[in-house]
Amino acid sequence: MNNRPPVYDALHEFSKPFWSAVKHAGWFNQAMFDLAPLPPESFAASAGSLLAFFPYCVTTDGETNDIERATIIPCEAFQHLLRHGSVDIARVIGNPNGEDEGEELEIDIIATDASLALVIRVNNVFLIGVRGTSYMYEWLSNLCALKLQEAKGEYHRGFWVETKKLELEICKFFKTKFNGKKERSKCVVYLSGHSLGGAIASLLDPCAIGLSPCSIKGTFVYGAPRTLSKTSWYPSGLPVQARDLQLDIIPHLPPLFAGYRNHKHLVERRLYPRGKLMELWISLRWKQWLRKNAKVKSNHIIEKYMFMEYLAIQCSTIPASSPYSCDQGYLEFPFGRYREFFDFVE
Fold first, then answer.
1. Does any domain span residue 146?
2. What are phi and psi of 42, to 5 degrees?
3. Enclosing H/E stretch for 150
4. For 272, which of 64, 84, 215, 337 is 20 to 30 Å away at the CA?
5. Nearest Cα residue to 204 out of 216, 186, 188, 222
6. CA 81/CA 76 separation, integer angstroms
7. Is 87 inside a domain boundary?
8. Residue 1 falls within a domain, yes or no?
9. What pLDDT score does 288 carry?
10. Residue 15 and residue 88: Cα distance in Å, rounded?
11. What three-state secondary structure class fits 77?
């Protein structure tokens, strides 16, 4: 008898393209070039959006005990899990071999009061998705632009402090898994995060989590606020692959006039580019938007970022004569119907 809650089936549908995208991206050392005409980077962005989504499928005790406060979390799936109960995340994600249920998949949850990291291990490859908890989002409406001077530059003070707390816990995790530095030096890490989780993911330092300086091979952030000044560099030493969407104001914060800069390698999934007038308007009105405008959250949710990355692949792999057809793609993905999946659990 199948006792799975309806939300499990929806989440399982969401996760189907993950391992295919990971393999096409070459995160397991060799990309599947013979199966797709696109470069690995195109699939990496889609895999990263899913990796950023998975931590939202895990709720903390503090969030389930205070549902009203947790409604600020920008993920529709998370909101449904708060009301309808948790799911076994390992069963949702499955495993890279394509076997159902994913019993052999090793997943760990690392949490502080303000952030949560979901760690997926496949041999020596660690896929880490990061999100902020409801505690962290409480002070989003009071987001300040104060910076902290560190060795590699100036960073947003609040994000830097929370990153250091999470780094300490991740370091304990790796030292528990591997006794010696030689073993840890062979680890390969891919990071991803959405919103405030993306801000933390962009600031994670491989040395601070007990790994070698070159262990982080890629960092992908979606709808993440700015984290560092114009003359600073990321602690990982690598550029961060960033995405932002039309009408999502969070990537515009803190404002540029406060000395911050956009993430390197920013891809704008928008109809028109950023402009100085838009930046100025958002800089003057962002507090009112966050407090009063419900569309801020709807334009910022992770599901929209997942859908846009999926659509980018679909529109690149199908004939130009039918740019909006989703029938001929390399990833079968139901993001376009994600609302339908959750309607029946209301």
1. yes
2. -65, -40
3. strand 147-150
4. 337
5. 216
6. 9
7. yes
8. no
9. 60
10. 13
11. helix
| 3-state DSSP of 207-245 | CCCCCCCCCEEEEEEECCCCCEECCCCCCCCCCCEEEEE
β partners of residue 216? 189
Residue 97 lies in a domain: yes
Domain housing 238: 6-343
pLDDT of residue 200: 95
Residue length of the chain = 346
Convert 171-191 into a string of H (helix), E (strand) and C (coil). HHHHHHHCCCHHHHCCCEEEE
Q: Are 259 and 179 in contact (CB under 8 A)?
A: no
Using CA atoms, how far apart are residues 234 and 197, in angstroms rounded to an integer?
A: 15
| Residue whose tokens read 């139901």 | 334
Instruction: List C-alpha distances in Å: 22 to 42, 126, 171, 191, 317.
Output: 11, 12, 25, 13, 17
Structure tokens at 293: 């405008």
Does an H or E element contain 22, and which?
helix 18-25
**Cα separation, 274 vs 266, whole angstroms:** 11
Write the CATH number for 155.
3.40.50
pLDDT for the residue 63: 84
Q: What is the pLDDT of residues 124-133, one digit of tens each?
A: 899 999 998 8
Residue 297 exposed, middle or buried by CB count within 10 Å (0-12, 13-18, 19+): middle
pLDDT tens digits for range 204-215: 999 999 888 888
Residue 204: how many CB atoms within 10 A of its CB? 24
User: What 3-state DSSP class applies to 109?
Assistant: strand
pLDDT in tens, 80-115: 888 877 788 888 888 777 655 444 678 999 999 889
Residue 165 is encoded by which pair of tokens?
Answer: 């707390």
CB 26 within 8 A of CB 48: no
pTM value is 0.85
- Strand 153-156 with 188-194, pairing: unpaired
Contact between 38 and 317 under an 8 Å Cβ cutoff? The reply is yes
Number of domains present in the structure of the chain: 1
| 2-16 average pLDDT score | 66
The Cα–Cα gap between 95 and 110 comes to 20
